[in-house]
Amino acid sequence: MLGYQKNNLKQMLHQCPAWKGERSHLLACLCDCEDIDLAFDNCINCHRVQSSTMKNITATIADRCRIPWCGGNGAIQVRLDVIVPIIVVPSCILLGTIGPIMTVGALIAMPFLMFIFYRMWRRQHTKVRTKFFSTWANTSIIFSYFVFQTFVVAFRKILLWEFLLFFTALLALLYGLYLTKKNPGFLKFGHSDQEKTAEDSKTWQQNSKWVESLKNNDNKWKDVYLNGQSTIQLNANGENNSIFSQSESPNVVNENTAPMIPVEEVTWVDSRPIEGHHLITWCGFCNLQRPPRTGHCYVCNSCIAVRDHHCVWIDNCIGANNHRSFLVSMILFIFCGIYGSHLTLTTVCTPEIYYNWILWPNDCRFLYTDFQTSISFVTACYVIVSTSIMLLALVQQILFISQNITSQELHRATMNGMTCLGLYAYNNVHNKGLRKNWAEFIFKTSRSISLKIPV
């Protein structure tokens, strides 16, 4: 009997990883990943972690991020750049409820975590587009409103008209974001024999207003868009993805015939790139001649009419069709952030009234006495920080619109040494004065192109 037990013990020892000289740990029960072991060993030994190791770790974690589902196909895989913001934003706010030091630490840690993850994502993925920032923004809005509705309103200190005003502004913000997410004004090469639908035709008519302004304002572009050399038509590419297209014809402008202007002759602000000492009017990605004020977005993989920039927070370009709704959404976001934070702080703190109608938080000594008060205060601080950043972006947009210039045009002008302090552009042929610039932006369907630009 004793000999039998010894033989079993020897067999068990021979099967043990430590007996064989192999490494193991308790975390292997959760994730048996050699790359994680190697990365931790390198960190402990102060050695550099190889990029291939980090790529394998990221791929492993992304593969394990799954949600159980009863659809018959097993657990659903969740994108890592989507699940991380959903976890990080509420977790940091909840950690901030512990005390004032943790509140400051959480607010400082959130942008650092955002930057670190984004750097890791860009390093390990070839895809330019990511849902990380848009998911972060959506999570912040949803969680902040959840805290306001669940904890702040529960104090029963907010009046009905105050709540209705805030809720109405929030609904208007969501509608503005919906309009901003629509087609910004895509310009892309396509074929004339593709099937058209009534809904796509309606979208094309809306998007073609900018091209119509080119036809009416500048005779130079009539040869391109009207006289049979290249006809504008719809390329049915799905809802909200309808795009302008150039049908193929013998006289169509191509890469070899598209004009290139020597850089010495470019004395105006232009959004198109300068390569090889020439202004390039042809887009090799979209296979079309870019009109003035057009920019190619490498994230959307398309040319955008009057492109301003690609907003990562809504994962959409800002162009000719959605710039006004984008500006309105920024204003509504700032209003909701300021007003919601004011309602929260005057609720959790003892307020003091000024001029018989302005409430201002005065006594805030008991912010961390209970969870309801602390989470309301920390969320308000997070909203104030986000609103302050948005306010700076709004000031920047006001400066650009006042000059009738886009972010891309200002960026090109800065590269060419045609700006003052990176905020004001010289030789801006589109600048018609403050009043006319704002009147054109608000009331006209599209922003005009100066006749001083030859191509």
Automatic annotation (TrEMBL):
It is found in: Golgi apparatus, trans-Golgi network membrane. The chain crosses the membrane at residues 104-121, 133-152, 158-178, 331-355, 375-395. Residues 281-410 form the Palmitoyltransferase DHHC domain. It holds the Pfam family DHHC. GO terms for cellular component: endoplasmic reticulum; Golgi apparatus. GO terms for molecular function: protein-cysteine S-palmitoyltransferase activity. The DHHC domain is required for palmitoyltransferase activity. This is Palmitoyltransferase. It comes from Acanthosepion pharaonis.
